[in-house]
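G.,

No rush on this.
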Amino acid sequence: MRLSLLGAAALALLTTPASAQVLDARVLPERYGWLDNRDWGWYARRIPLFESPERSIDSTYYYRWQLVTKHLTYGDPATGYTFTEFIDRPFWSGAYGAISCPLGHQMYELRWLKDARIVRDFARYWFTAPGAQPRSYSNWYGDAVWATYLVNGDRAYLGRALPFMKRQLAGWDAERYDSIVGLYHWDGLHDGMERSINSRQTDDIDEGADGYRPTLNSYIFADLRAIARASALLGDSAGARSYAERADSIRARVLRELWDPRRGFFLHQFAHDEKDGVRARTRTWDSGKYAGNAHGRELIGYVPWQFELPPPNQGYERAWAALMDTARFLAPFGPTTAERHDPLFYISPRCCWWSGNSWPYATTQTLVALANVVNDYPQDVVTKRDWMELFRIYTRTQRKNGRPYIAEAANPDDGSWEGHDTFQHSEHYFHSGYIDPLITGLIGLRPRADDSLEVNPLAPGEWKYFALDGVEYRGHRLTILWDRDGTRYGRGTGLTILADGRVLATAPRLGRVVAYLKPVQFLELEERPPAVNLAVNNGRGAYPWVTASWSAPSTPAFALIDGNYRYDRDPPNRWTDSGSVNAKESLVLDFGAPRPVETLLLYFLDDGAGSAIRAPASYALEIWENGRWARAPEKARVPARPEGHRPNGVTFARRVLTSRIRLTFVPRPRAWVGLTEIEAWA
């Protein structure tokens, strides 16, 4: 499914919800009228629907999908879509504001999005967009591509992405591999984890402490394993064996070098001598000022389990005893990133310290890792109840002023984001996951490469019901529901799994269910060129351009062609005519040359009744034709009257070839007009 198609098909996407098997796609998202993006059809068409008895989890789920739309960015017609990390585009970001640090989390979230174009674009952006920076930070690109394939089952997608996976690995080999040690090295800042207890033992607390870390080495292990599996699937058995052997080698080196039997934990190992007697090739607190200290554990020590690197039944699981211990990691809004009572444990009132604050990035990793341990490791250290407690803590942390919210880091004791979400910095930060842990952990859909569907919910047995509806999985439409007494959904009691409307499996209690899922043959059709948005300019040329008859100084018209739409008042990404005294205002979208426009999407602002910015009372649309302005040959408008917080679509009755489009707005009484984006599709 494309984000925008041509002609009448584009308006159909604005009005027609995808069919659901249990939940009402027309009603459920509308429960959350406080969402900024109220394009209810977007949710209905593109995401699995979800409900549970815990409204805080439900609301956070839909907020996190809205977060996806806030960061969705159409870079240019050649590149298509990518995602930002910050709400703005900081100077250290790559093309169109994307940053490689969270790309693994972002791709894991996106694999559940029912829009193949966005998923494909994001996977290839990193190696086709000029100015993309796929290794500016450590990440697990290859693993995330494979994880996406496990959901979409599309071998063509995997075949196109495999060369990118190999290029990424070759870059890591050239830039970060130490052939003597047999591991990859980097500092915490380039893990996205600056000012850690290790970097603070160096002269540069941000970029110091170059070393062999559980993070990057686990990511490389996962990427190697993903390339091996993809190669085998696509018929390269020799290549698969080679990459699998390399993955085994990294695993062995991580276990030997980074596991500390004394403390039962995976730790950072320094690559160089540092100050205060810290010696190269020693782990945290094995040398230096605090040599022999019993602490030194950081949340990164759980990352190996995010990718199931530690072998089971060899005692490594004892590391997890520290997670649910309030004397170590557990906190009301945690977990903490370093264990309490460590000599350098520190909760900072401002960004950016990984010495104790709660970081959603790391919490996501820990939730995924813990779900893997509970699902796949025989052990008695942690339980599904522990996972649920941590997930509830994570949900509770994502709040500000009583509503769902996410930023860069929080105080683990009181949940405050203050000092960490400074203006146009990390508000609504896309640096973590929630959707994927909910689907693969709470609901327990465990993606597999074979024809078995595995579901093992970690949801509490005392819940009376839950439903995840309309999941697109390997060519099938799945619904997973729990109805303890059968009164909620009328599909019987217990756990029920539907595939394409038919019952695939049932169970009387919450637990692991494995069922055969008939494979779907994906047709290898010739790919049609995708629709392109002609109304975007991110600095690659002089056109397109947009001018306004009046713009408020703080809301310039250029915001309308940056490829990103969001409706926030603060921080803004909008044009308004605030302060104008004119009865009408106009915008001119100039393509610089004639362009074949078939569909126009207008993203109107509306800050609510009594506010200064409202959707206009009406608008007129003209095209530049035969040397003059002429009324546009409109076929349909959806919606018929201007509405804010959703796209307003216009299709044309005939093919329009024009170099300019003019919009003229009539404001509502005692209000001004505003938009966040204009899209012109062809």
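When you get to it, here's the other one too:
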Amino acid sequence: MKLPVLALPLLLVALAVPAAAQAGDPTAPDPHAGHNHGPGEHDHAPAQRTAPDGPRGWSDAVVEQIEQLPVQDGGRVKPFHTYAGFTLLRLHGSRSVTTPPVANPDGDPEPLRLTPVEWALDVLLRPDASSFDELFLVQNGEVLEAIGLPLGAERGRTRHAFEELMPAVNQLFQLAHEYSRIEEKDRNPVQQQIVTLASNVDSYLRLQSQMRWARKIFPVGDSEVLRDVFGGRTHVRFHDVVQNASRLQVLRQQLEGSDDPMQVAQGGRVRALIDEASHAVQTADDLAWIPPVASADAEPEWLTPVDVYVRAMQGRPVESVHVEALADWEDAAAEPDDPVVVAHALAGVVTGVKSLADARGEGDGLDLELTYYKLDLLTWSLSLFVLGFLACAGFWMRPKSRLFYRAAWSMSGAAYVLLTAVIVMRCIIRGRPPVSTLYETVLFVAATGGLSALFIEAINKKRIALSAASILGMVMLFIANGYEMLDKRDTMPSLVAVLDTNFWLATHVTTITMGYAAGMLAALLGSIWILGRVLRWKKDEPAFYKGLSRMTYGVICFAATLSIVGTILGGIWANDSWGRFWGWDPKENGALMIVIWQVAMLHGRMAGLLRDKGFAVASAVGGTVIAFSWWGVNLLGVGLHSYGFTSGIHSALWTYYAVQWSVAGLGMLAVPGLKSRVV
């Protein structure tokens, strides 16, 4: 895990001091001077506080408004709903968080379960209250002991509020700074958990400080000069300073350059206001929710409040729509417990931002993405796969029952319809083929492999392929869910430059992934053959196993064809991107291993060296060859394909290897066959 923030000496928990240097004007404030602030450089109160008594939760109207807000995160524009969901997942390990008991008129105080959007709004607009939510996961008590917190009875997996961890923040970041210098693979579990916890606390504090400027009121006092600028008001807000930034800068320079001490003093008052505004906004540099007025090609990066402030102080034109959006956020921050005020204010923010995003051509797909995550079709699909698997178990226990067979068809068919809808929606949202990330290849392998199995079942009606379809879909969606929980990042990220080509994604990657799907289906069918023979299931029906062998052979032929074509296309892409067809890169070697293994299987079968038993064993082992090329080479972290590295899959991958090799070993040792050849 890279921790550019924690690589600094993060030893003090204090507010950052605004700098006063900026290019072109050495006396102008620079809010970006603190943009590398450490986790401690955020506003929070001392420890030993009590949870605020105010209301928690948000009205439906407020949630419906803010979840639509477009934000730019990770290089792409997405709804706030998506941003909040993955942020909470990364910090909390789940998509809901529990509040302390909250008073209600119907009975005793009870805790609330906040959705990601509700939680994120709390952090932005009710930071004091959010500090008491049980947010941070601590895997074992040794972490608490290491950072100097009393352990008590908490020796296992526990969750803690920031308020509980705050007394140990100094020690936490000291240790994280020390351990971040150690390679991740060399850290022990406690060291890794401390680094992760520190990173999560830092992310939380950064989010908590994003609206500090919106909660700030700036006193003008009795300064006649400032009152003249702000229409006689004695207190102003941040958007007022931004709107009048150019005038304030000119006024400050004129007054401070005067020979009149009274005017110099007035210039000092102007400078103090500018510095205070700079201090208030300097931490609001993470959440980019302000689209520039320029086109996306001319200015692809969205703006944060810091960026808007800097532009204003540089004398660049201030867009009225930006000022209005800042003012709307300030209205929401001023009355966070008034649902009518907050809903109206956020409606203004969302309307303005969406209109700018649409004008830049970046609003397409946002509503569909919001619908995609709200429908949660993958969960429904996984549920149907589980029911389909149970129905398959039913018809194997009661072979004459047509009810279970029809139920399995219905459940599995409906699950694949939903899975296909998921893939199509993701393609529309991203404008990409369905295989641009490792996560998406899991979905694509599940869909193509499972639909192929259903097609085979429709032809031979042996119930084997239908069972394989339900098992493959269920296992792959469990893997997809586990990968998302492990990675805890947006599953629709911006692509690295080498992958940013729809042509090669649609040809090479799609073809090679379909080869993965066919190979994994063959591995499953081969495993079924072996386990059936070991368990002496249908021992008096040799035709059953002959049919299963033919099925496996046909799928391997399909897999080998796709693997060969996909590998050749990959070489053409490599020549187009890197100037060479083949470079013995680990990913290229993995693809070659699949081709060699599958071609060797086909030649072995043609030569009579591999018969039913041998082909089933080779198919089962072939699944591990595919898994190595698909996932394993990414663990090496080397080569031109290292963009696919995913931390934390090592154990899962080796578990799969162990299972498949055990099945293959059972086939070799426990299934009867001629000793002179593998049959």
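The longest helix spans residues 542-578. The two ends are 48 Å apart (CA to CA).

Enjoy the weekend,
O.
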